[in-house]
Amino acid sequence: MRSGKSTFYFILLNITISAITTLIVLWLWDSSKGNLPTPKTQPADIPITSPELNMPVAPQDFSPTLPPVGQKLVTIENVFGVGDLQQEVVVMKYIGDGELDLTGWQLKDKNDHIYIFSGLRIYKGSAIEIYTRAGPNNLTELNWNLNEAIWHSGDTVTILDPEGNIRDSYLIP
């Protein structure tokens, strides 16, 4: 009988220590990587992964100087899932050098649906997918949080810099 009681206390102690250890590890993990912000409406407050480090890079305060309008920085590579809210996505790629702060940049359609980027930095060769649907953002997928699909064949997707200059446009086939 005494052996059964000892085993019970041993198991109870083991469960308690395991639970405490798990909570400590989760707390350390969460505090070391920081919490990714969840947008309230349109902003994309997510840092993009640095290709050199292969890890998220937090946004920093700096005043970006944009190259001349004629210098291509970003390209809209494609629009997939046209007309299907859950699949509709614009794929945008940064083709400039170094890094680019997209704060204040806009993704726009002909009906003036506007997605405004905020606190987002991308690096050469990085691609971003901007989904029309609602959902949480992550490092490479942003959600516009709209209730209906907005892209149609024949529409033009436009990227504007913070000064309102067109940086790229794409005609949806």
Q: How helix-rich are the residues, as a percent range?
A: 10-25%
Write down the CATH class of the largest domain: Mainly Beta
What is the N-to-C order of secondary-structure elements (H for helix, E for strand)? HEEEEEEEEEEEE
By secondary-structure content and strand pairing, the structural class works out as alpha+beta
The rounded Rg comes to 23 Å
Please give the CATH architecture of the largest domain: Sandwich
CATH superfamily of the largest domain: Lamin Tail domain
Number of helical segments? 1
* Main pleated-sheet profile: 4 strands, mixed
The stretches of 5 or more residues where confidence is low (pLDDT under 50) are: 34-63
Give structural notes.
There is one protein chain. The chain is an alpha+beta fold. The chain has two domains: 1-35; 49-171, Immunoglobulin-like. The protein is 18% helix and 28% strand.
